[in-house]
Amino acid sequence: MPKKPAAVLTVGEVARRSGIAVSTVHFYEARGLIEGWRTEGNQRRYHRAVLRRIAIIRIAQRAGIPLARIREALADLPHDHVPNARDWQKFTDEWRAMLDDRITRLLQLRDQIASCIGCGCLSLEDCPLRNPDDRLGEKGPGPRRLELAENHHEGT
Amino acid sequence: MPKKPAAVLTVGEVARRSGIAVSTVHFYEARGLIEGWRTEGNQRRYHRAVLRRIAIIRIAQRAGIPLARIREALADLPHDHVPNARDWQKFTDEWRAMLDDRITRLLQLRDQIASCIGCGCLSLEDCPLRNPDDRLGEKGPGPRRLELAENHHEGT
DNA sequence: TGATAACCTCGTCAATAGTTGAGGTTCGAT
DNA sequence: ATCGAACCTCAACTATTGACGAGGTTATCA
């Protein structure tokens, strides 16, 4: 193969090698998920480490994590070089915690539904699944308290 | 209590009792998630069974399931009366399958990440997490194959 | 030195899940 | 009968996550 894998990538190369569209590369950069520099002629250039970042981003998205939060998590990973073991460790720790959290909540949901089948919860009057919202509802109009329980991220 | 729980509800009552905004009730109706009838004067009326539907909708959303799919699942539940045991059973079976599916995929993801920490996958050349996308990317541009693996719902 | 492939910005569009507001109608209580 | 609360429709706007095209510039190959 004449083409040696370049350490510096153009947008097009990033797109091709990461499997995302060029527009998406732009988009991710605009959102601060990835970062590179520009040539004299204003064209984007990226360190190959960006490929890993993008891989991580896609993984995270598969888990349903919004870009904004992915960005926060990625803040620990360097843009300009392939992460070393420590970078990576720190990152994955947080990451796994996020996933665990999601999984836990999903499991709860599933098990609660299961118990609802068994408990004849058709009356729905004291169903553990329904109540969190209903209590709120009964209490009056008030501001919409969306159950975004997942937004409980304070700094580390 | 002077107010007996009405069997027929106005939008406002639905909103108050279910904890969602009136505009959201409208929205759900427009999307076919709930259903009612109109008075002479064109105002919405709902059977109280709608409260259960809405409760279910919110539960499903907590699990990250898009409204379109919730609607499909809810198609098995009657709009006009509180579901009986059979309705409910049928529904929850499908439901649980969906949740299980999501949980499974999330677990896979988590475990793969864990294994990546251990396996020194920093080289990232054969990381099981990265490859699905990368293989695609390497093969050429082609149409964007978004990994919405969750869209694999054919009819029952 | 061109040609043309790849790149640039910026604006628009799509789908999801709603919220808000304008302008007008109906309901229910007095 | 009248008043105000609740309701109606419709359009526009929010945010997220991008895709896509127009019009113009840069890089690279021969």
From TrEMBL, chains A, B:
Residue ranges of the region described as Disordered: 134-156
GO molecular function terms attached to this record: 2 iron, 2 sulfur cluster binding; DNA binding; DNA-binding transcription factor activity; metal ion binding
Keyword Signal applies: no
One Gene Ontology term from the biological process aspect of the record: response to oxidative stress
Stretches assigned to the HTH merR-type domain: 8-76
SUPFAM superfamilies given in the database record: Putative DNA-binding domain (SSF46955)
Keywords of this entry: 2Fe-2S, DNA-binding, Iron, Iron-sulfur, Metal-binding, Transcription, Transcription regulation
Biased composition (Basic and acidic residues): 144-156
Transcription recorded as keyword: yes
Protein name (record): MerR family transcriptional regulator
Classification of source organism: Bacteria, Pseudomonadati, Pseudomonadota, Alphaproteobacteria, Hyphomicrobiales
